Amino acid sequence: MFGAGDVQVREVPDARLDRPTDALLRVTHAAICGSDLWRYQKLAPTPDGIRLGHEFLGVVEETGAEVTSVRPGDLVLAPFKWSDGSCEFCRAGLHSSCLHGGFWGGALDGGQGERVRVPQADGTLVPLPMEPDDPRVPAVLALADVLCTGHHAALSARVGPDSTVAVIGDGAVGLCAVLAAARLGASRIVVLGRHPRRTDLARRFGAVEVVPERGPAAVERVKELTGGHGADAVLECVGTGAALRDALDMTRPGGAVGYVGVPQDGEGVDVRRFYRRNITLSGGVTPARAYIPELLPDVLSGRLDAAAIFDRTVGLDGVPDGYKAMAAREALKVLIRP
Amino acid sequence: MFGAGDVQVREVPDARLDRPTDALLRVTHAAICGSDLWRYQKLAPTPDGIRLGHEFLGVVEETGAEVTSVRPGDLVLAPFKWSDGSCEFCRAGLHSSCLHGGFWGGALDGGQGERVRVPQADGTLVPLPMEPDDPRVPAVLALADVLCTGHHAALSARVGPDSTVAVIGDGAVGLCAVLAAARLGASRIVVLGRHPRRTDLARRFGAVEVVPERGPAAVERVKELTGGHGADAVLECVGTGAALRDALDMTRPGGAVGYVGVPQDGEGVDVRRFYRRNITLSGGVTPARAYIPELLPDVLSGRLDAAAIFDRTVGLDGVPDGYKAMAAREALKVLIRP
């Protein structure tokens, strides 16, 4: 990406092993993320470009001398941050704060390409018991980010059996949050969104009500739908101050907001807004690597199937159009087959 | 109180039963709260005055026809909000959000006086197995607000065995938060304050380090004292935006801030400040009535003894001077014997 709206497919030097803990991955499936769109809308001109793609899986081609958990030929999933799996934060299940990890892209390779050098391969990659042409691959790819992120929103908001849940946002993360909340036993899920194709999918995933309003009208409507005092758990899957304020306002006293939308504005949240009601605000960058082993069996069994969020498939040459389609909301989420 | 700095002792009509669920209480012990001081500093002139006092205990003199849990002659403790004990929020342990409860003062009686009409007496009052002259009474009085509030901060910040804890504020609530964190098994408690008499008490209550700095210097110092990444649990017991920002900055990734200071300014908290670190922000108005039955046995046994926060005792006539002394920080917390 060379600036807002400017995605190009370029030849770059081949990815290659650099450290003994690296693995080299041939990407078979990748995706465009809603969070990529924020940059697509506002990235300043960047002559050298930035590498894109943090949701991908593929086949290991080569491993460094110290890599023991994956071998050439393995199909593996990469979460949206790499991590060593052994530092104090990884051991605590907070791989997103790994002391020796980082985000894809930047100076490193991105997953929207042919090959990626994977640092800390043992800590990062998850072997998959399947072939690249397995029909379950798109559902598995969702675990790289959006499905784990929806799960993180649900856990952060303490969704459990019998929770009433409101999910703000009908993008891929919001839809995955609906799926995750349903899996955790929520008794009633309301989704806030206004794109019928997406809210229809939310219903398929477990939502029983759709609220197209925003602001105070949305807050009132959610209260009506959840017994009068608000939802036990509100999952904020947008990332704006306005959405976060709505989330806090529609939470039942004693309830919790799980926020996973990457905050896009510096709009403050006034604590006085929720002090009287004892609302808990929790969330942040998802430790996807921690959740994959727990969620993968349910994905493989078909119990947790987010594949329907992918409504368009492109090759590498189609990536620029993929961005355009997602930015115009013509596509919900684009699958890339390099 | 008739305005900032203007507290007067006035004769008012005798409190009397109004509803069958009321009890009439003769106050034997009351206190001045740090939260009363905010109004003492900025209340606009109020010709009719407002009644003060939300921490008190005393002897039941009379009960309405429907009251069953207390009888005339009982010594009882009143938490800082009254509540019915039976609504959906009380049943969930969130008495601070009782659908039929409220704060003392305002149009109702306040506890800094001779007698109080207690609404919802069955839900509100806690009988005490002691006489008014029992030396443990001041320790029990702390349960009306500050000790439960410190406990709420600690629970909200998820303090447990082996937690590292930072407590922001060396007022009565901060000191009680130290005590509560120690009771919950914290492995290391750091208190942030700069009043030696108070921080000495914090050490007696369980703090092992005192940090007089504020802002970034305090954040750095707490990180140094808690393994480099911040405290697992930070208890915000001040109520300003500056203190809350410090709290969020000094929390370890994956940790939690428990905030109980009544928010005094509208300064927003930018979520971007803690999104990357997965900090949980939790707290609010303490459901004191929910905690009293759990904490009272430890108070009676002497295991949880906050009595030392009371460093001055006055009669009703001494209340105006009590406010003055607390505002000037000459007294930490004033006990009133009407």
From TrEMBL, chains A, B:
Residues 172-297 form the Alcohol dehydrogenase-like C-terminal domain. Keywords: Metal-binding, Zinc. Its cofactor is Zn(2+). Gene3D superfamilies: Medium-chain alcohol dehydrogenases, catalytic domain (3.90.180.10), NAD(P)-binding Rossmann-like Domain (3.40.50.720). One of its GO terms (molecular function) is metal ion binding. Residues 20-129 form the Alcohol dehydrogenase-like N-terminal domain. InterPro entries: ADH-like_C, ADH-like_N, GroES-like_sf, NAD(P)-bd_dom_sf. This is IMP dehydrogenase. It comes from Streptomyces sioyaensis.
